[in-house]
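Weekly structure sync, notes
Attendees: PL (lead), two postdocs, one rotation student
Agenda item 3: pending single-chain targets
PL asked that the sequence for the first pending target be pasted directly into the notes so everyone works from the same version. It is reproduced below exactly as submitted, 112 residues in total.
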Amino acid sequence: MPMTRLDWHDATVVRIVDVFTHRNRKDFSSAVSAFRESGGRHLIVNLREATYIDSAALGLLALTAQQFRAEERRLSLVDPQGTVKQILEMANIDKMIAVFPTEEAATEARVA
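Predicted structure, written out during the meeting:
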């Protein structure tokens, strides 16, 4: 899973390209750990270029969202497409984690 992490406005954005599965969950976990260590308050996961997500990745997103709520941090998802969007909807992840069309919308909602 090629993944990039960057600070953007008052948030950190992790962009996931290709697949997000059990095999590459450690990359995501490392990005989340680095985010926590930085003292960040809002993590945005951009799924625009993700082509597939499996149950392990869904579980990781759900667990991260629960932990962030307890830590008074926010997790947002941005622009899932095709199969990824369908999988998130079937698993009701969109009920647990806010989904936005753009990174800008996610950061604006954070302050609203």
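Discussion points:
- The first strand starts at residue 3 and ends at 8.
- Strands lie at 3-8, 11-20, 42-53, 74-78, 98-100.
Action: rotation student to compare against the earlier draft before next sync.
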